[in-house]
Amino acid sequence: MRNIELKNVSKAFGSVQAAQDVSLTFEPGKIYGLLGRNGAGKSTLLNMMTGRVFPDGGTITVDGESVIENDRAMGKIYLMGESCYYPDGMRLKEAFRWAAKFYPNFDTENANYLAEQFDLNLKKKVKELSTGMSTMFRLCIALSTGAPYIFLDEPVLGLDAVHRDLFYKLLVEQFERHPVCYVISTHLIEEVAGLIEDIYIIRQGKILLHESTERLLARGYTVTGPTAAVDTFVENHPSIGEDQLGGLKSAYILGSLDTSHMPDGLELSKLNLQQLFVQLTKE
């Protein structure tokens, strides 16, 4: 079976429980969203799957093999984080050559193509890169490693709107050419909503929800209207959150909804992914 699988994985840092009995599966040929608020445990999970942090309990396997001290399993995963580990004085073109030595399936031609799309000057040194340019450089490498499992942790850090849009288009292009497993962890949820097929939402170290994006969005609604009418409606449709503004109220509902018997005075609209995330992860 080709997948990354976590079974009952836990990790604590002192009194902080960063992961609590987490079980999840990532399969090739899908783009996943790993979503959570700051401190929810996303980075801890990514670091455990890539062997940078050892779990306190549970198992993590890649294609059936444990990741613990297993170079073959680790060689199938690439994690792009927020840090750049290439020497400050190294030129980008030289960094691509070194990447090809570390990753046997590294596609230098593709890395050069991506750099051209981002308008990166490969003669520049790593230390000369702005935050956004450093992100572009690391994306060029991540999308060219040839690894079957690619984790992108905050992949648009420092990118302006134009370059973020370019990245999303390039990611789709790369995925269509090589449908490997991509896992995206980001705070810009609405921007990636059209990309991710499967969603894991993590809250306080626990998996709160796992569902396909399509099915999740099909079940999310906002009901708005006079407070009394909304309160009556949600008696039969429990809400995941509410907002009040004067005499008007909005209730957020996740579940099946019979829209054929909507009371007069109520307005029904669909929730987008970011709105759903906000309501589900509120304290």
Q: What's the shape?
A: globular
SS strand fraction: 25-35%
Total number of strands: 14
Spatial separation of the terminal alpha carbons = 38 Å
**Order of helices and strands, N to C?**
EEEHEEHEHHHEHEHEEHEHEEEH
Taking the sheet with the most strands, its summary is: 6 strands, mixed
**Helix percentage:** 25-40%
Computed Rg:
21 Å
Poorly predicted spans: none
Count of helix runs: 10
Mean pLDDT: 93
Adjacency order of strands in the biggest sheet = 6-7-8-3-9-10
Structural class computed from helices and strand pairing: alpha/beta
SSE blueprint and pairings:
Layout: E1 4-13, E2 16-26, E3 31-35, H1 42-49, E4 57-62, E5 65-66, H2 71-74, E6 77-80, H3 92-102, H4 108-117, H5 131-142, E7 149-153, H6 161-177, E8 181-185, H7 189-192, E9 198-203, E10 206-212, H8 213-218, E11 220-226, H9 227-234, E12 239-245, E13 248-254, E14 267-270, H10 273-281
Parallel strand pairs: 3-8, 3-9, 6-7, 7-8
Antiparallel strand pairs: 1-2, 1-4, 4-5, 9-10, 11-13, 11-14, 12-13
What attributes characterize this protein structure?
single chain; 283 residues; alpha/beta; 6-stranded mixed β-sheet; 4-stranded antiparallel β-sheet; globular
Task: Write structural notes for this entry.
It is built from ten helices and 14 strands. The mean pLDDT is 93. Helix 4 packs antiparallel against helix 5. The protein is globular. A six-stranded mixed β-sheet has the order 6-7-8-3-9-10, with helices on both faces. The protein has a four-stranded antiparallel β-sheet with strand order 2-1-4-5, with helices on one face. The protein has a four-stranded antiparallel β-sheet with strand order 12-13-11-14. The longest helix has 17 residues. Strand 12 and strand 13 form a beta hairpin.
